[in-house]
Design a protein that fits this description.
The chain is built from 14 helices and eight strands. It is of the alpha/beta class. Bound molecules: dihydroflavine-adenine dinucleotide. The site of dihydroflavine-adenine dinucleotide has 24 residues, from strand 4, strand 5, strand 7 and helix 13.
């Protein structure tokens, strides 16, 4: 892992930096490249704008590692309202939540109750809920949350990270449940005893796990794979494997982040490949934005350009 990536990921959890950065004009301008706005309306408007291109979306209200029960209640209320707004919007929009937003750090039972409330509303609104995967200490409780909920409803999916050694085993455990799995490379600072230190190994594991999730037994079990990457050569390699193995389009979707690799997003949509874009919005964007910067050091140049431009 590069030094720049390490520094940015370490900075992502620094409260002092967060408070300064979110008040700084050039940082606010830079973040707008990846975030259509801070409000629910901004995210719904961005979803509507992607619809004519044939692109569907997932919305996530930024926030993580909450420290107060009332905050988890506010987040849950926000997502309940969002599910209602989506229900009347005529748009194909799902939601994506972080367990620590629903109170996982505070009280696991509270987090389960909050997720149950979202699942109940998603059922009423014929919608679908994704659970994001956070840092490695959260993998076990997040998997437990997913399997418990999946036993009650198929309207739930989970993100898994290809940089973790354990993920191959987790995939095998989730296939018989007919799980919806969003495979991503992984965005957190992880030690070498839990995650591949070399990007090339993560990339290869990503390919291996994606193909595993599209094997006939996984398809027959009802699995849905979200291929969550902006890595064009890797996406193309998977596209070739998909056509060689005659995988039906119902078995997978590509998923990407708002504002990243827009040309590739349009290319996939024009080819008729299903693509779902994750749109993040909200005021608590600092740790999320630092992870985006860490993914591509060139993005730091973009921030500096905004700073010099005095925006
Ligand atoms: P990779 O890092 O290999 O880069 C390939 C190319 O993509 C780069 O050369 C660049 O051109 C472009 N690119 C990638 N990131 C960019 C950026 N930030 N800005 C500009 N260009 C960029 N992680 C996690 O730990 N838990 C989660 O729940 C999720 N959820 C999630 C959902 C979806 C839909 C996506 C696409 C990603 C996530 N992630 C995530 C993030 C994921 O783990 C990973 O950090 C990023 O997707 C970057 O890895 P890639 O495979 O996209 O590209």
């Amino acid at each position: 892992m590069s030094l720049m990536r390490r520094v940015l990921l370490a900075g992502s959890t620094n409260a002092w930096l967060r408070d300064r950065a979110t008040k700084t004009a050039f940082m606010r301008k830079s973040v707008s490249r990846f975030m259509p706005g801070e409000q629910m309306d901004d995210a719904l408007k961005a979803s509507a704008e992607l619809k004519p291109d044939g692109i569907t979306t997932m919305l996530t209200h930024l926030g993580e590692n909450l420290t107060k029960v009332e905050e988890a209640e506010d987040v849950t209320q926000h997502y309940l309202q969002l599910l209602d707004r989506i229900g009347t919007s005529g748009l194909d929009v799902q939601i994506s939540v972080k367990p620590t937003q629903l109170g996982l750090d505070l009280d696991r039972a509270l987090c389960e109750r909050n997720l149950d409330r979202l699942m109940e509303r998603a059922g009423q609104r014929n919608n679908f809920v994704w659970i994001d995967m956070e840092g490695s200490p959260y993998v076990d409780p997040t998997l437990a949350l997913f399997t418990r909920t999946r036993a009650k409803t198929p309207r739930i999916g989970i993100a898994l990270q290809a940089y973790l050694y354990r993920t191959a085993k987790d995939v095998e455990a989730l296939i018989p449940l007919g799980s919806a799995i969003r495979l991503v490379k992984g965005a957190y600072l992880e030690p070498a005893d839990v995650a591949f230190p070399k990007k090339a190994d993560t990339d290869e594991n990503f390919f291996k796990l994606c193909t595993r999730l599209m094997e006939p037994d996984a398809r027959e079990a009802g699995c849905l794979l979200h291929i969550g990457t902006h890595d064009v050569p890797l996406s193309d390699r998977l596209g070739t494997w998909i056509s060689q193995n005659h995988v039906p389009s119902s078995a997978y979707e590509f998923s990407m982040l708002y504002g990243i690799q827009r040309a590739q997003q349009l290319r996939l949509a024009r080819e008729g490949t299903r693509l779902r874009v994750l749109i993040s919005y909200g005021e608590y964007w600092f740790p999320w934005y630092m992870r985006r910067l860490a993914e591509r050091p060139a993005n730091v140049g973009f921030v500096l350009k905004n700073m010099i431009g005095g925006a």
